[in-house]
Specification:
Helix content is 41%, strand content 18%. By secondary structure, the protein is of the alpha/beta class.
């Protein structure tokens, strides 16, 4: 159980940095089968003026750069919020071994909510999914961020 806490803690560090940068506080880290962090990302949609600059997408690009691979088979991705359809699709294409996420996202999530992408017959790769890890911490951070916007 220590692994969950340790790697999710790193994802939360990314989310908190996004919060401080006035970005929606979502963070992601990618971990190799050997337990080495090979990629990290946080939402940068406002800063980069790019709606696709989600934490998962930036972490994937970072991991591909660091590993020199074109896919991330055998790797795990840890995210502070249930991935959207775009990010879930990328997770499938990258062939991640496992997806760990904190809070469920009833509005934009696509793993256990919305289109439930990994349950679709057209999805060729389905990672093992473990959701709800430290969900209250993620929900609190997101609520704090959006409360300040109202």
């Amino acid at each position: 159980m220590t692994e969950f806490t340790d790697y999710m803690a790193l994802a939360f560090e990314q989310a908190e940095q996004a919060f401080e940068a006035d970005e929606v506080p979502v963070g992601a880290v990618i971990v190799s089968a050997a337990g080495r962090v090979v990629g990290a990302g946080q939402n940068h949609m406002r800063r980069l003026k790019d709606a696709s600059a989600h934490a998962e997408m930036l972490a994937i690009k970072d991991a591909l750069r660091q590993t020199g691979q074109d896919r991330l088979e055998g790797h795990d991705i840890w995210v502070t919020l249930e991935p959207c359809a775009m990010c879930a699709g990328a997770i499938s294409h990258m062939r991640f071994r496992r997806l760990y996420f904190a809070a469920y996202d009833s509005k934009s999530g696509a793993v256990d909510n919305g289109p439930c992408l990994f349950h679709q017959p057209t999805i060729h790769h389905r990672p093992e999914i473990i959701g709800g890890l430290q969900d209250r911490r993620s929900e609190a951070l997101l609520q704090q961020f959006f409360a300040a916007k109202r």
